[in-house]
């Protein structure tokens, strides 16, 4: 924009100063509205007779072209100050045929330095003929507008004729309506957006959650997901199509291995069925409902999360109290302060699942506030000392069952004193994670407590074959658990001798982690002696073979059947072993653990349909488990409540399910571990 500075003697100079255009100026230029020519200089600088002459010239002459002004300003002779008025007025109102309302023009504010909004580009556009400017009428500026311009020096109020105003308002309203309509209409996705998304997926290999659709992921109708017998890749068999069959093994082939893009429709294919969405939705709803906790569980969880603010539980059942203890133990909130909420003289049993943050004084308070305890279970009790155990021996006069997990500070003589004091009333003893429990202590237990019915020893570093001799003297044993002894400390002959003595009364036998045992334990000890065993745990016994397990269950006529079998990580067992188990105990089996038995095939897993009373199954890392096997198992076992399938990649999201059944570890599923 150019700014004219008026000097002395009524001369005008052009300094050609340019700057940024304001938003108001841009808006007026777009709408074709321009402000009128400023009024002439005050009468003080111009004689009255000259001013009258100039006004007469303005009325008679049309506006001169702008190049005259530029040439006059560049010449050495100064031009009169009013010579540019007709030209500027004509330029500002060019193209508007307006009726003349007033020919009077207010005095100019040019002396105040107000910008006139003209620039060099405007002067270039005004090089038109004189005939275009004959019908142009200058726009009048009121006195109030002049005062506003002088005051703000940035705003100009232009009073235009009625026809011009209506055209401007109509054009502006039309533009606003178009802008509003463009905002309301959603932007359509063009090809560039698709290409960008494809490039992003190709680079990262990740699809955003907004583009994820469970409907698009699940096959519709009677579609089925199977695995190729050659490349082991997953592919979908669409409804009404027949996939290619491998001539070698009779398995199904994917389109890539078959050499075709997609399996063609068979001649005898039935018409394509409509998608059965309702059945799948019911199955998905059943899976979700089985994971939703009850109102009681939600209240218990709320109390457990705010355990620091609870002063007392009041009247609460033992089951709810145990659930709260589990939650706060998992949150590591069980300490000496929160322990007081669980101590009551009316309690006969107490189980603390994590005593890590409970001090020795807090552990001692258990015997002080609960003197009537008959069963005490302390897990992770690394802070319990000999003094605390002596306090228990003195005050817990009704104690018949004791479980200690991780008592690393208790010495040998304290155990001996405990067994001698309790004596014949001691019935259950479980010890795990102690390196100071020795042969003398186990002899004191067997000699002083002959009525022991449940003996469970695990992770005792000093355990060897000599320990089994005094245990053989416990003729009333119903449950015997030996877990994770040191390698090569327990031999097969010593274990066989022990089971032959106490096996007739055992209802539960566990030899977990005894990796040195062979098939002789199964054939010579368990099969002839354990006639009442209902729970058998042989997990981690890697030396056991298929022939030994098959011989045990096929010829085990003296045993009516097992309710619990654990063969976890028995890696040498094959199909015949599982077939023998299901044939012998299929009617009574309720829990079965096959985790890590990778040698099993689909034929062996199909025999699980014999287990009609099965409640819980762990088939993790059994690669042969697939959708067909799961479907048959679900149909055959109506009581099945939980199936663990970690690492079974052939089990897809299309496998059968029902209300009350939890499938844990399936690929692509989200499982809230809080409710498992």
Automatic annotation (TrEMBL):
Residues 50-62, 112-130 have a biased composition (Acidic residues). GO terms for biological process: SCF-dependent proteasomal ubiquitin-dependent protein catabolic process. Residues 1-137, 161-203 are annotated as: Disordered. This is F-box/LRR-repeat protein 15-like leucin rich repeat domain-containing protein. GO terms for cellular component: SCF ubiquitin ligase complex. Transmembrane segments: none annotated. Residues 66-92, 161-180 have a biased composition (Low complexity). Residues 12-28 have a biased composition (Polar residues). Residues 394-610 form the F-box/LRR-repeat protein 15-like leucin rich repeat domain.
């Amino acid at each position: 924009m150019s700014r004219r500075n008026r000097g002395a003697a009524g001369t005008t100079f052009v300094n050609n100063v340019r700057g940024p255009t304001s938003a108001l100026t841009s808006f007026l230029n777009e709408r074709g509205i321009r402000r009128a020519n400023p009024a002439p200089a005050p009468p003080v600088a111009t004689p009255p007779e000259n001013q009258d002459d100039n006004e007469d010239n303005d009325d008679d002459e049309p506006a001169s072209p702008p190049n005259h002004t530029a040439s006059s300003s560049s010449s050495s002779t100064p031009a009169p100050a009013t010579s540019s008025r007709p030209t500027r007025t004509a330029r500002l109102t060019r193209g508007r045929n307006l009726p003349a309302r007033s020919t009077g023009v207010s005095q100019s504010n040019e002396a105040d330095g107000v910008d006139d909004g003209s620039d060099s580009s405007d002067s270039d556009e005004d090089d038109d003929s004189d005939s275009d400017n004959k019908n142009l009428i200058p726009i009048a500026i009121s006195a109030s507008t002049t005062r506003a311009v002088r005051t703000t020096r940035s705003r100009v109020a232009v009073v235009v004729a009625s026809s011009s105003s209506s055209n401007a308002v109509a054009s502006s309203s039309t533009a606003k309506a178009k802008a509003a309509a463009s905002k309301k209409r959603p932007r359509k996705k063009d090809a560039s957006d698709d290409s960008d998304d494809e490039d992003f997926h190709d680079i990262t290999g990740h699809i955003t959650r907004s583009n994820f659709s469970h409907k698009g992921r699940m096959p519709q109708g009677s579609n089925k997901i199977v695995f190729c017998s050659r490349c082991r890749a997953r592919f979908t068999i669409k409804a009404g199509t027949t996939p290619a069959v491998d001539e070698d093994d009779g398995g199904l082939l994917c389109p890539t291995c078959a050499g075709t893009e997609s399996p063609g429709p068979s001649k005898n294919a039935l018409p394509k069925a409509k998608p059965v969405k309702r059945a799948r939705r019911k199955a998905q709803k059943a899976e979700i409902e089985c994971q939703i906790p009850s109102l009681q569980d939600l209240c218990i969880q709320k109390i457990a999360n705010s355990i620091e603010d609870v002063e007392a539980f009041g009247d609460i059942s033992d089951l709810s109290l145990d659930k709260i203890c589990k939650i706060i133990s998992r949150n590591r909130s069980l300490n000496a302060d929160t322990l007081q909420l669980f101590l009551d003289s009316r309690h006969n049993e107490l189980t603390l699942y994590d005593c890590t943050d409970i001090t020795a004084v807090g552990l001692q308070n258990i015997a002080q506030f609960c003197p009537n305890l008959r069963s005490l279970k302390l897990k992770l009790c690394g802070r319990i000392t000999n003094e605390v155990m002596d306090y228990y021996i003195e005050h817990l006069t009704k104690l018949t069952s004791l479980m200690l997990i991780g008592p690393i500070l208790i010495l040998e003589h304290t155990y001996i004193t405990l067994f001698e004091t309790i004596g014949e009333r001691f019935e259950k003893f479980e010890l795990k994670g102690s390196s100071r429990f020795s042969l003398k202590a186990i002899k004191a237990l067997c000699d002083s407590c002959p009525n022991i019915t449940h003996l469970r020893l695990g992770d005792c570093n000093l355990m060897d074959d000599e320990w089994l001799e005094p245990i053989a003297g416990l003729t009333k044993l119903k449950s015997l658990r030996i877990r994770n002894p040191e390698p090569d400390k327990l031999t097969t002959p010593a274990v066989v001798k022990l089971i032959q003595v106490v096996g007739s009364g055992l209802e539960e036998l566990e030899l977990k982690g005894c990796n040195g045992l062979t098939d002789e334990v199964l054939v010579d000890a368990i099969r002839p002696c354990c006639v009442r065993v209902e729970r058998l745990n042989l997990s981690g016994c890697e030396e056991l073979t298929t022939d030994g397990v098959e011989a045990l269950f096929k010829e085990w006529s003296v045993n009516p059947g097992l309710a619990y079998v654990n063969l976890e990580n028995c890696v040498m067992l094959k199909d015949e072993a599982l077939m023998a188990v299901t044939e012998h105990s299929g009617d009574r089996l309720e829990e079965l653990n096959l985790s890590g038995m990778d040698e099993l095939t689909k034929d062996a897993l199909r025999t699980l349909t014999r287990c009609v009373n099965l409640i819980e199954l762990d088939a993790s890392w059994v690669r042969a488990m697939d959708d067909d096997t799961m479907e048959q198992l679900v149909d055959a076992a109506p009581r099945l409540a939980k199936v663990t399938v970690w690492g079974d990649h052939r089990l897809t999201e299309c496998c059968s399910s029902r209300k009350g059944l939890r499938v844990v570890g399936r690929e692509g599923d989200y499982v809230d571990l809080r409710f498992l």
